[in-house]
Amino acid sequence: MILTVALNAALDVTYHIDQSISPHSTHRVREVTAAAGGKALNTARILHTLGESVVSTGLLGGATGRQIAGLIPQGLRHSFVSVAAESRRALVVADPDDATGFWEPGADVTDAEWSGFLDRYAGLSAVARVVVLSGSLPPGLPIDAYAQLVRIARLNRATTILDCDGSALHAALPERPDVIKPNTAELAEAVPHLDTGDDAGVVDAARVLLRAGAGTVVASRGPEGLIAVTDDGHWSAAPAAAIVGNPTGAGDACVAGLARGILHGQPWPSRLRGAVALSSASVLAPIAGHVEVNDYLRLRGTVDLRDFVVNNQHVSDNTEEQ
Amino acid sequence: MILTVALNAALDVTYHIDQSISPHSTHRVREVTAAAGGKALNTARILHTLGESVVSTGLLGGATGRQIAGLIPQGLRHSFVSVAAESRRALVVADPDDATGFWEPGADVTDAEWSGFLDRYAGLSAVARVVVLSGSLPPGLPIDAYAQLVRIARLNRATTILDCDGSALHAALPERPDVIKPNTAELAEAVPHLDTGDDAGVVDAARVLLRAGAGTVVASRGPEGLIAVTDDGHWSAAPAAAIVGNPTGAGDACVAGLARGILHGQPWPSRLRGAVALSSASVLAPIAGHVEVNDYLRLRGTVDLRDFVVNNQHVSDNTEEQ
User: Fold this and answer.
1) Best mutation target, A102, A104, A108, to test chain B (most B CBs within 10 A)
2) In 3-state terms, what secondary structure has residue B288?
3) What is the pLDDT of residue A287?
4) Which ipTM value was assigned to this complex?
5) Among A236, B1, B23, B255, which has the highest number of CB atoms less than 10 A from its own CB?
6) The domain B2-18+33-309: what is its CATH number?
């Protein structure tokens, strides 16, 4: 079972307006759509779509939290802990040209609520094989919140994938998360003294994070694909052609691919192939956190495994699993 | 007792952001504030602040409706009817320079829910002396919704104040609402063939609406104050000096002043004096639908009763009541 943890789950709300957004005027909203959002819930939804055994946990608060719970797809098991403050909304105003985003800060979590969550998480992570920790921390949580969750997962022998940035990431590295997935901007922010502009720079920066505690660094570089860097070597994978669509949530689809590959004991090249194909399929889907299974299966065969270095030797990729 | 009717009540949400709004980018929201809003609830809140006996009714739906109910001030009596669809939010993004508004359309009300509301309203309006009907109609309601409410109030011998525009106003006029309160733009839209640019034009346009069924037309003209036009004559009142502040909700404060004046049997000049003073006091208050009682009392003495014509003769104003 894969456990996904959404500490700062969001109600993703879209305001559809018929004219371009105009600062300092008023706009009639034609239609309001809402979905259960946040990175970890996007990952959980995609894993569920692929038929994987997944359980979603995290914190939900107030009326917005109840709305989020009501929008989780039927059949996707979840076990959220309630907090008193309101869960956040992530509002996108979609006009005919493009989208404008407004991100609320999130529910202010008390010490007692966090302690209650740790109890719930200790139980769930004891029956999980893979734990996905992703997204920002809501106000009120200690900066080492992810460090605590990585430590508990390790004691429970679950493999951790951590997708966060900034001080939350730095605080968690000493607890040795098994996989971290920074994107290019997050990698550059985490290792500011190195140039991450080319493949060699990304590998060098990733090695800094390996020395800080990460088991594997999977750097996501948008349309240029992924580079996974471990102590043993590094692999890179990219879509065969540029995918045009909605890139929101592509990173969450990537994490779903990595979690699935780890659950099924795949080697790194296969994990990357799946992660790139799921990211590409999510770009094709109009809504963040969704994929069409047929897109995924079709794209998986086309992923370009470009670089493949083990113990400083290039080797060929003979693996292929679904 | 004054009954206020909020058919399209709103959760007024403000996103406070630290940088100017920038189309097609993303913004971190520093703080989210919320209030129970919509025109009728603003009017009710001000009447309650002034110590008047007021009851608020209308339609509330879903989680947003429950949030609105939870934000109605303690002690302000209310009796709302629940509907299945979500009540609307009125979102203002406040940046350091100015505000940008996004108005959701509102809950889609079913025929059965409207029928249930009419039952509730029939009872409440039977014990009301004044009924305030204000704001837009939510989707799903018949365009003659206000016409139905005016008719029921008349049968119950309650005086009606109607503050709406467009086709909802036109549909209600044949039922003879006692007072309507168009602002300059709404008056120009309702009587498009007349020039409402000066006082005489406003009086002429108002007389068109009197002939269509209105008992009195109170035209609100922002900083230029009010003109009340009846079959017997017309009166105008304006603030002594321009008031700088937040004009949102000033029209709702004006309606509160009119409702209070009618409840206490004041003559038109006193009603206008109170309505102008409450509008001005609401402009001074930073939040829509709020006034400081001291501001109101101080401003009431300064209102300029400029024009005062009864049966085509100018007369002096000797009335003053609180």
Assistant:
1) A102
2) coil
3) 82
4) 0.80
5) B255
6) 3.40.1190.20
Distance CA B241, CA B262 (A): 26
Query: Can you tell me the distance from the alpha carbon of A99 to that of B21, in angstroms, rounded to the nearest whole number?
Result: 13
Q: Would the CB atoms of B103 and A64 count as touching at under 8 Å?
A: no
CB-CB neighbors (< 8 A) of B21 in chain A: 23-24, 100
Task: Select the residue from A26, A86, A97 to test the B interface by mutation, using most B Cβ atoms within 10 A.
Answer: A26
Question: Residue A132 and residue A181: Cα distance in Å, rounded?
Answer: 11
pTM: 0.81
A interface with B, Cβ–Cβ below 8 Å: 15, 17, 20-32, 63-64, 66-67, 91, 93, 95, 97-105
Q: How confident is the model at residue B222 (pLDDT cuts 50, 70, 90)?
A: confident
3-state secondary structure chain A: CEEEEECCCEEEEEEECCCCCCCCCEEECCEEEEEEECHHHHHHHHHHHCCCCEEEEEEEEHHHHHHHHHCCCCCCEEEEEEECCCCEEEEEEECCCCEEEEECCCCCCCHHHHHHHHHHHHHHHHCCCEEEEECCCCCCCCCCHHHHHHHHHHHCCCEEEEECCHHHHHHHHHHCCCEECCEHHHHHHHCCCCCCCCHHHHHHHHHHHHHHCCCEEEEECHHHCEEEECCCEEEEEECCCCCCCCCCCHHHHHHHHHHHHHHCCCCHHHHHHHHHHHHHHHHHCCCCCCCCHHHHHHHHCCCEEEEEEECCEECCCCCCCC
User: Contact A32/B66, CB-based, under 8 Å?
Assistant: no
pLDDT in tens, A154-182: 999 999 999 999 999 999 999 999 999 99
* Residue with token string 């009682």: B293
Chain B residues with CB-CB distance to A10 below 8 A: none
Q: Which of A227, A129, A127, A236 is nearest to A178 (CA)?
A: A129
Contact predicate A239/A304, CB 8 Å:
yes
Q: How far is B103 from chain A (nearest CA, A)?
A: 5
Of B24, B67, B91, nearest to A63 by CB-CB distance is B67
Q: Which residue of A has its CA nearest to B105?
A: A29
Average pLDDT, chain B: 93
Cα–Cα dist A310/A305, whole Å: 14
Contacts of A128 (CB under 8 A, 6+ apart): A1, A2, A3, A55, A153, A156, A158
B95 as an active site residue: the answer is no
Catalytic annotation, pick one of B12, B144, B163, B252: B252
The C-alpha atoms of residue A54 and residue A56 are separated, in whole angstroms, by 7
Q: Given a cut of 80, is residue B319 above it in pLDDT? A: no
- Please name the residue of chain B whose CA is at the shortest distance from the CA of residue A22: B23
Chain A residues whose beta carbon lies within 8 Å of the beta carbon of residue B28:
103, 105
